[in-house]
């Protein structure tokens, strides 16, 4: 472990709880879970302090036991004889009890009890109070469960609160496990990311959101998240894509990254991606016409194609198409869904609506989440506060009303909740359509770009046409006066406050600094998701806050859960003390 030691005389104990701020895990469950369970290395530091005479390898294995108690205990017991088993269990229970007692000194008695599983709370208390010895506890039938209870209590006491700044979904394989892990931590809050919002909309069956989610899963060779993780039946889509695009090479629809797919699955996934892109363009045209206040008319590009010449007009310029095969598009009525496409889209909408597991995860996002949070002096959100080029707060029109700054965030948060809870069907539809707008709208605090260039990325080779211009927030966030105006608008003290956000991976490998404006703004998206690591050069950031200040950890590639359990491997990180 290479976390920097930054304690000093009078500093809080390593056993004091910390706040963890993490952004953009994008389905990378194993690294996220390891950071959370080990309090970003804080548990290992606590082990070092509590057991200075233990060999380093034993301390590493004890920290691994805290993070993965059941798996690590099973490995230690494997091959141990019946006679030796009680001594080994007693040793593990004694070490964990010593460690937990040090954490308990920093917390109220009620917090320790709350961190212990109900069935074993009394037993944990007896160990801490010395009324039950480790040797006696090792003889209990539930001794292994007790080890797990002690380790879990340490995990929960080590982290005072988790703040997850959005984008649980897409790219990586296990967003469901991340949300389950977050749900198991009582003090966890989420600020929604753009990828979370589009999945929330898909869970409602909102057609634009459904199309984006399925297309993105296909683009990254990740359809198994839908079929295996969430148990959705995609056979109508698979059959349609393989039939409608049977003879189509789909030249513009290669997959991102290097997904581990068989040749047959690769071909099918490419065809699915194209099929969903065309259905998306058609479905979005309907939504654009139904919601003129969104200002997205320029995104209707199927109608801008010259099918005879093989070109498309974008922003007044004609570009040659990279793919001219459109078997389901009628040039005289390009936005009409074929009966087969209508059936596929309807089946997909029902698959999302009917997925109980996804509905449970979306409910967790609603219950624990919001568009932004004010946590002490930290203003937390996923992407940006939309600004004008002069640094003033950008006015955004939604359904006939105009909002900016905090008022915009509050209005959006309300519309999102209306999508799920309003009794008026029209209010529910407005909210659902807004979820789609938040994914790609210029005024969205979660998108923060001039356009979503999905069509151009697929069909135009010229990078100038593909360019998505970031909101001025990203050019002006080094200006202290601009940030001060944002803080004042949110009712915060500009002298004391700071913004913590994610969304845009920091190009650390190119020397980009995640600390902006002298520490008034931090971008903590460091590419935890594997597809982004080529951009960032690292494997994510974690901001750790305690009574002593804040430390930003930059992570390198994690060797994985298996290595952490079997070899007591840890996450290699470097620390930067901020304040």
Number of strands: 17
- Characterize the largest beta sheet: strand count, sense, and whether it forms a barrel: 7 strands, mixed
Distance between the termini: 22 Å
Mean pLDDT across all amino acids: 95
SS content category:
alpha/beta
Low-confidence stretches: 1-10
Structure overview:
With 579 residues, the protein is an alpha/beta fold. The protein is built from 25 helices and 17 strands. The strands form four sheets. The protein has a seven-stranded mixed sheet with strand order 7-3-2-1-15-16-17. A five-stranded mixed sheet has the order 8-9-12-14-13, with no helix packed on it. A three-stranded antiparallel sheet has the order 4-5-6, with no helix packed on it. α3 packs across α4. It is globular, with a radius of gyration of 26 Å.
SSE diagram, text form:
Elements: E1 18-22, H1 29-37, H2 42-50, H3 56-67, H4 69-77, H5 85-104, H6 109-115, H7 121-128, H8 134-138, H9 143-158, E2 159-164, H10 175-183, E3 188-191, H11 194-203, H12 207-219, H13 224-229, H14 235-244, H15 263-290, E4 305-306, E5 311-314, E6 317-320, H16 339-353, H17 356-368, E7 369-370, E8 372-375, E9 378-381, E10 396-398, E11 401-403, H18 405-421, H19 425-440, H20 454-459, H21 463-466, H22 473-476, H23 480-489, E12 498-501, E13 515-516, E14 521-523, H24 533-536, E15 541-546, E16 549-555, H25 561-566, E17 573-577
Helix pairs in contact: 2-3, 3-4, 5-9, 6-9, 10-17, 11-12, 11-17, 11-19, 12-15, 14-15, 18-19
């Amino acid at each position: 472990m290479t976390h920097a030691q930054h304690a000093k005389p009078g500093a809080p104990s390593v056993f004091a709880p910390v706040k963890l701020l993490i952004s953009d895990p994008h389905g990378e469950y194993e690294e996220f879970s390891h950071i959370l369970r080990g309090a970003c290395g804080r548990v290992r530091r606590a082990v070092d302090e509590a057991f200075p005479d233990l060999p380093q390898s034993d301390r590493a294995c004890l920290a691994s036991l805290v993070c993965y108690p059941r798996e690590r205990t099973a490995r230690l017991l494997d091959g141990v004889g019946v006679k030796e088993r009680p001594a080994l269990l007693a040793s593990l229970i004694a070490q964990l009890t010593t460690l937990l007692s040090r954490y308990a000194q920093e917390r109220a008695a009620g917090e320790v009890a709350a961190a212990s599983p109900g069935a074993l709370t009394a037993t944990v208390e007896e160990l801490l109070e010395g009324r039950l010895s480790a040797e006696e506890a090792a003889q209990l039938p539930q001794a292994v469960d007790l080890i797990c209870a002690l380790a879990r209590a340490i995990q929960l006491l080590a982290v005072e609160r988790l703040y997850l700044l959005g984008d649980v979904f897409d790219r990586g394989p296990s967003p469901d496990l991340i949300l389950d892990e977050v749900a198991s931590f009582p003090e966890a809050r989420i600020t929604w990311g753009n990828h979370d919002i589009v999945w929330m909309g898909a869970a409602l069956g909102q057609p634009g959101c459904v199309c984006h989610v399925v297309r993105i899963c296909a683009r990254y060779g990740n359809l198994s998240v839908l079929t295996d993780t969430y148990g959705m039946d995609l056979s109508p889509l698979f059959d349609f894509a393989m039939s409608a695009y049977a003879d189509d090479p789909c030249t513009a629809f290669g997959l991102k990254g290097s997904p581990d797919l068989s040749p047959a699955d690769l071909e099918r996934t490419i065809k699915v991606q194209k099929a969903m892109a065309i259905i998306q363009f058609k479905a979005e045209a309907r939504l654009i016409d139904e919601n003129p206040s969104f200002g997205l008319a320029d995104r209707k590009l199927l109608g801008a194609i010259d099918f005879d010449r093989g070109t498309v007009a974008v922003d007044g310029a004609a570009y040659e198409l990279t793919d001219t095969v459109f078997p389901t598009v009628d040039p005289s009525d390009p936005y009409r869904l074929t009966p087969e496409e209508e059936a596929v889209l309807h089946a997909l909408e029902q698959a999302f609506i009917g997925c109980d597991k996804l509905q449970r995860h979306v409910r967790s996002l609603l219950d624990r989440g919001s568009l932004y949070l004010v946590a002490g002096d930290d203003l937390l959100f996923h992407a940006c506060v939309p600004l004008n080029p002069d640094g003033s707060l950008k006015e955004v029109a939604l359904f006939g009303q105009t909002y900016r700054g905090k008022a915009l965030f509050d209005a959006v948060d309300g519309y999102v909740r209306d999508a799920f809870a309003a009794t008026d069907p029209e209010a529910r539809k407005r909210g659902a359509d807004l979820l789609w707008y938040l994914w790609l709208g210029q005024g969205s605090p979660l998108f923060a770009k001039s356009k979503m260039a999905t069509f151009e990325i697929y069909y135009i080779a010229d990078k100038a046409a593909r360019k998505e211009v970031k909101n001025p927030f990203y050019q002006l966030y080094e200006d202290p006066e601009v940030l001060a105006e944002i803080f004042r608008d949110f009712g915060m003290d500009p002298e004391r406050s700071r913004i913590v956000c994610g969304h845009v991976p920091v190009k650390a490998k190119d020397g980009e600094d995640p600390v902006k404006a002298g520490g008034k703004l931090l971008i903590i998206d460091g590419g935890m998701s594997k597809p982004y690591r080529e951009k960032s050069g690292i494997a994510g950031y974690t901001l750790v806050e305690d009574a002593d200040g804040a430390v930003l950890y930059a992570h390198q590639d994690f060797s994985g859960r298996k290595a952490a359990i079997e070899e007591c491997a840890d996450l290699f990180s470097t620390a930067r003390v901020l304040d």
